Amino acid sequence: MGLLKGSLTFFRLSYQKDLNISITEITEKLKEYSFENIYDELKPVNYGFVPFLYPAIESFDEAEVAFNEYITFTIRLDEKKVNSNFFNIEMEKKKRELMLQSNKEKLSKSDIDFLKNNVTKSLLQSTTPSTTLIEVILDSNNNSIFISKLNSKIFDATAHLFKLAFDINIYRETFAEILKRNLDELSVLDNLLNSLPATI
Protein backbone atom coordinates (compact mmCIF):
# COMPACT_ATOMS: atom_id res chain seq x y z
CA MET A 1 0.00 0.00 0.00
CA GLY A 2 2.05 2.88 -1.34
CA LEU A 3 0.01 5.70 0.13
CA LEU A 4 0.41 4.36 3.66
CA LYS A 5 4.16 3.87 3.31
CA GLY A 6 5.09 7.49 2.71
CA SER A 7 5.36 9.87 -0.22
CA LEU A 8 3.48 8.92 -3.36
CA THR A 9 2.88 10.60 -6.70
CA PHE A 10 -0.75 10.94 -7.73
CA PHE A 11 -2.17 11.73 -11.14
CA ARG A 12 -5.24 13.92 -11.35
CA LEU A 13 -8.20 13.03 -13.58
CA SER A 14 -11.35 15.10 -13.92
CA TYR A 15 -15.01 14.73 -14.82
CA GLN A 16 -17.70 17.31 -15.55
CA LYS A 17 -20.94 15.67 -14.41
CA ASP A 18 -21.57 16.10 -10.66
CA LEU A 19 -21.64 12.87 -8.67
CA ASN A 20 -24.75 13.46 -6.57
CA ILE A 21 -25.09 10.12 -4.79
CA SER A 22 -24.75 9.06 -1.16
CA ILE A 23 -21.89 7.14 0.43
CA THR A 24 -24.19 4.13 0.70
CA GLU A 25 -24.93 4.27 -3.03
CA ILE A 26 -21.23 4.66 -3.86
CA THR A 27 -20.39 1.63 -1.72
CA GLU A 28 -23.08 -0.43 -3.46
CA LYS A 29 -21.64 0.52 -6.85
CA LEU A 30 -18.15 -0.44 -5.69
CA LYS A 31 -19.53 -3.82 -4.64
CA GLU A 32 -21.42 -4.29 -7.90
CA TYR A 33 -18.32 -3.64 -10.00
CA SER A 34 -15.83 -5.22 -7.61
CA PHE A 35 -13.02 -7.30 -9.06
CA GLU A 36 -14.41 -10.48 -7.51
CA ASN A 37 -17.91 -9.82 -8.84
CA ILE A 38 -17.01 -9.19 -12.50
CA TYR A 39 -13.92 -11.41 -12.81
CA ASP A 40 -13.87 -13.75 -15.83
CA GLU A 41 -11.06 -16.31 -15.87
CA LEU A 42 -11.29 -16.61 -19.66
CA LYS A 43 -10.53 -12.92 -20.25
CA PRO A 44 -6.88 -11.90 -20.79
CA VAL A 45 -7.53 -8.64 -18.91
CA ASN A 46 -9.70 -8.26 -15.81
CA TYR A 47 -10.23 -5.20 -13.62
CA GLY A 48 -12.56 -4.06 -10.88
CA PHE A 49 -12.84 -2.23 -7.57
CA VAL A 50 -11.33 -3.55 -4.34
CA PRO A 51 -11.05 -1.90 -0.89
CA PHE A 52 -8.36 0.71 -0.24
CA LEU A 53 -6.56 -1.61 2.22
CA TYR A 54 -6.71 -4.60 -0.15
CA PRO A 55 -5.56 -7.36 0.21
CA ALA A 56 -5.61 -6.95 4.02
CA ILE A 57 -9.33 -6.17 3.64
CA GLU A 58 -10.96 -7.99 0.72
CA SER A 59 -14.63 -7.07 1.02
CA PHE A 60 -16.40 -3.71 0.84
CA ASP A 61 -18.71 -5.04 3.57
CA GLU A 62 -15.77 -4.66 5.96
CA ALA A 63 -14.07 -1.63 4.39
CA GLU A 64 -14.27 2.07 5.18
CA VAL A 65 -14.57 4.09 1.98
CA ALA A 66 -15.29 7.60 3.30
CA PHE A 67 -12.54 9.71 4.87
CA ASN A 68 -13.85 13.21 5.56
CA GLU A 69 -14.93 14.52 2.13
CA TYR A 70 -12.94 11.92 0.19
CA ILE A 71 -13.83 8.44 -1.06
CA THR A 72 -10.95 5.97 -1.18
CA PHE A 73 -10.66 2.57 -2.81
CA THR A 74 -8.37 0.65 -5.16
CA ILE A 75 -8.64 -0.70 -8.69
CA ARG A 76 -7.17 -4.15 -9.29
CA LEU A 77 -6.04 -4.84 -12.86
CA ASP A 78 -4.94 -8.35 -13.86
CA GLU A 79 -3.41 -9.13 -17.24
CA LYS A 80 -2.56 -12.55 -18.63
CA LYS A 81 -0.21 -12.87 -21.59
CA VAL A 82 0.14 -16.06 -23.59
CA ASN A 83 3.50 -16.62 -25.27
CA SER A 84 2.89 -16.60 -29.02
CA ASN A 85 5.45 -19.33 -29.76
CA PHE A 86 3.97 -21.62 -27.13
CA PHE A 87 0.49 -20.90 -28.49
CA ASN A 88 1.57 -21.86 -32.02
CA ILE A 89 3.13 -25.11 -30.76
CA GLU A 90 -0.08 -26.04 -28.93
CA MET A 91 -2.17 -25.15 -31.98
CA GLU A 92 -0.16 -27.39 -34.28
CA LYS A 93 -0.44 -30.23 -31.78
CA LYS A 94 -4.23 -29.83 -31.55
CA LYS A 95 -4.53 -29.62 -35.35
CA ARG A 96 -2.75 -32.93 -35.79
CA GLU A 97 -4.89 -34.55 -33.11
CA LEU A 98 -8.13 -33.33 -34.70
CA MET A 99 -7.07 -34.38 -38.20
CA LEU A 100 -6.22 -37.83 -36.90
CA GLN A 101 -9.49 -38.19 -34.99
CA SER A 102 -11.66 -36.96 -37.86
CA ASN A 103 -9.70 -38.57 -40.70
CA LYS A 104 -9.35 -35.19 -42.39
CA GLU A 105 -6.46 -34.17 -44.57
CA LYS A 106 -7.31 -30.50 -44.16
CA LEU A 107 -9.15 -28.60 -41.44
CA SER A 108 -11.90 -26.11 -42.21
CA LYS A 109 -11.92 -22.50 -41.03
CA SER A 110 -14.52 -23.39 -38.40
CA ASP A 111 -12.26 -26.20 -37.17
CA ILE A 112 -9.33 -23.78 -36.86
CA ASP A 113 -11.46 -21.18 -35.05
CA PHE A 114 -12.73 -23.86 -32.66
CA LEU A 115 -9.19 -24.98 -31.86
CA LYS A 116 -7.96 -21.40 -31.40
CA ASN A 117 -10.75 -20.72 -28.93
CA ASN A 118 -10.08 -23.89 -26.95
CA VAL A 119 -6.31 -23.44 -26.87
CA THR A 120 -6.67 -19.79 -25.81
CA LYS A 121 -9.06 -20.72 -22.99
CA SER A 122 -6.82 -23.53 -21.79
CA LEU A 123 -3.69 -21.38 -21.76
CA LEU A 124 -5.41 -18.43 -20.07
CA GLN A 125 -6.74 -20.67 -17.30
CA SER A 126 -3.24 -21.96 -16.55
CA THR A 127 -1.45 -18.59 -16.84
CA THR A 128 -0.59 -16.54 -13.74
CA PRO A 129 -1.68 -12.92 -14.20
CA SER A 130 0.39 -9.80 -13.78
CA THR A 131 -1.44 -7.77 -11.12
CA THR A 132 -1.46 -3.99 -10.73
CA LEU A 133 -3.10 -2.17 -7.80
CA ILE A 134 -4.09 1.45 -8.42
CA GLU A 135 -5.01 3.50 -5.36
CA VAL A 136 -7.87 5.92 -5.96
CA ILE A 137 -8.99 9.05 -4.11
CA LEU A 138 -12.31 10.47 -5.28
CA ASP A 139 -12.88 14.15 -4.53
CA SER A 140 -16.49 14.64 -5.55
CA ASN A 141 -16.56 18.25 -4.29
CA ASN A 142 -14.07 19.22 -7.01
CA ASN A 143 -15.02 16.65 -9.65
CA SER A 144 -11.56 15.12 -9.37
CA ILE A 145 -10.07 11.64 -9.18
CA PHE A 146 -6.50 11.03 -8.01
CA ILE A 147 -4.85 7.74 -8.95
CA SER A 148 -1.46 6.37 -7.91
CA LYS A 149 -0.43 4.98 -11.32
CA LEU A 150 -1.22 6.05 -14.86
CA ASN A 151 -0.62 4.74 -18.35
CA SER A 152 -2.95 4.26 -21.30
CA LYS A 153 -4.10 0.81 -20.16
CA ILE A 154 -4.78 1.99 -16.60
CA PHE A 155 -6.61 5.08 -17.87
CA ASP A 156 -8.83 2.97 -20.15
CA ALA A 157 -9.69 0.56 -17.32
CA THR A 158 -10.39 3.41 -14.89
CA ALA A 159 -12.52 5.29 -17.43
CA HIS A 160 -14.52 2.15 -18.23
CA LEU A 161 -15.17 1.34 -14.57
CA PHE A 162 -16.26 4.88 -13.70
CA LYS A 163 -18.57 4.97 -16.71
CA LEU A 164 -20.14 1.63 -15.74
CA ALA A 165 -20.45 2.36 -12.03
CA PHE A 166 -21.17 6.09 -11.89
CA ASP A 167 -22.06 7.07 -15.48
CA ILE A 168 -19.35 9.74 -15.63
CA ASN A 169 -16.75 10.36 -18.32
CA ILE A 170 -13.28 11.00 -16.96
CA TYR A 171 -10.50 12.83 -18.75
CA ARG A 172 -7.02 14.12 -18.11
CA GLU A 173 -6.63 17.88 -18.13
CA THR A 174 -4.44 19.54 -20.71
CA PHE A 175 -1.60 21.79 -19.61
CA ALA A 176 -3.69 24.86 -20.47
CA GLU A 177 -6.65 23.60 -18.42
CA ILE A 178 -4.40 23.04 -15.41
CA LEU A 179 -3.13 26.60 -15.71
CA LYS A 180 -6.66 27.99 -16.01
CA ARG A 181 -7.66 26.15 -12.86
CA ASN A 182 -4.69 27.34 -10.84
CA LEU A 183 -4.09 30.88 -12.02
CA ASP A 184 -6.31 33.65 -10.71
CA GLU A 185 -5.37 36.22 -13.31
CA LEU A 186 -6.52 35.27 -16.80
CA SER A 187 -4.27 37.94 -18.25
CA VAL A 188 -1.26 36.13 -16.79
CA LEU A 189 -2.50 32.94 -18.42
CA ASP A 190 -2.99 34.63 -21.77
CA ASN A 191 0.50 36.12 -21.71
CA LEU A 192 2.00 32.78 -20.74
CA LEU A 193 0.11 30.84 -23.41
CA ASN A 194 1.11 33.35 -26.07
CA SER A 195 4.75 32.70 -25.25
CA LEU A 196 4.45 28.91 -25.48
CA PRO A 197 4.77 26.77 -28.62
CA ALA A 198 1.55 26.31 -30.57
CA THR A 199 1.55 22.55 -29.96
CA ILE A 200 0.71 22.89 -26.24
Explain this structure.
With 200 residues, the protein is of the alpha+beta class. The chain has three domains: 118 residues, TATA-Binding Protein, CATH 3.30.310; 42 residues; 27 residues, no CATH class. It contains eight helices and seven strands, in the order αβααβββααββαβαα. Strands 1, 2, 3, 4, 5, 6 and 7 form a seven-stranded antiparallel β-sheet that branches. β3 and β4 form a beta hairpin. The longest helix is centred in the middle third of the chain and has 19 residues. It is elongated, with a radius of gyration of 23 Å. The two termini are 35 Å apart.
Number of domains: 3
Instruction: Give the DSSP E fraction (strand runs of 2 or more residues).
Output: 15-25%
Quaternary structure classification: single chain
Question: How would you sum up the global shape?
Answer: elongated
- Total DSSP E strands: 7
N-to-C CA distance: 35 Å
Largest sheet: 7 strands, antiparallel
CA gyration radius, whole angstroms: 23 Å
Whole-number mean pLDDT: 86
According to CATH, what is the class of the largest domain? Alpha Beta
InterPro entries: RdgC
In brief, what are we looking at here?
This protein has 200 residues and is α+β, with helices and mostly antiparallel strands. It folds into 3 domains: 2-80 and 130-168, TATA-Binding Protein (2-Layer Sandwich), CATH 3.30.310; 84-125; 174-200, no CATH class. Helix content is 44%, strand content 20%.
